[in-house]
Amino acid sequence: MDRQRFWQLIEAARDRTPAEDVARRATSHLATHPVEEIVAAQRALWGLMADSYTNPLWAAAYVINGGCSDDGFDYFRGWLIAQGREIFERAVADPDALAELPVVRASAADGHDLECEKVLGIVWNAHLQATGRELPDGGWTIRYPQLDRSWNFDFDDRREMTRRLPRLAALHWERPEAHGC
Question: CB atoms < 10 A from the CB of 23, how many?
């Protein structure tokens, strides 16, 4: 399964549902595919994870979720994949554009974190459903790119974050009630 087919799987599962439901539906759909395609879907999923492993996107997740650990960034990117290809690609290209999304605006208002660990388990769970066995080791590797050194600063530096992600900072930090501020 290549990335195009993986995105088709995600789109078929979306139907304006929460990310957790997208993960459940995508898992069920994928489990009906031949085992070779299920295993290949793991490469597609983790290729997207590698593509989205950037400091600017991590900084955006930090602002949106009021902080962002390594695992939290993985779960944020899982949530982002569940939003579909168009939103994913736009966010990777311009993380500050996330401020335009209604779900991001709603999270600013209610302080709800945007993350979905379950998306990261779509292939694992589909393979388990289809075969009764765990996904085999060695079927894929992930190579994260080097992070951009120009973004190697403390994400708690609100002045710098506001300069680099002005729309997200305005949305999440300019209101006194946002994330305990």
Answer: 25
Amino acid identity of residue 118, one-letter, is K
Contact 17, 61 (CB under 8 A): no
Asked if pLDDT for residue 177 goes beyond 60, the answer is no
Question: CA triplet 61, 67, 70: central angle to 5 degrees?
Answer: 75
C-beta contacts of 4-9 below 8 A and 24+ residues apart: 5/37, 5/41, 5/44, 6/41, 6/44, 6/45, 6/48, 7/84, 7/85, 9/41
pLDDT, tens digit, 9 for 90 and up, residues 104-126? 999 999 989 999 999 999 999 99
Please give the Cα distance from 118 to 43 (Å, whole number).
Answer: 17
What predicted TM-score, i.e. pTM, was given to this entire model? 0.91
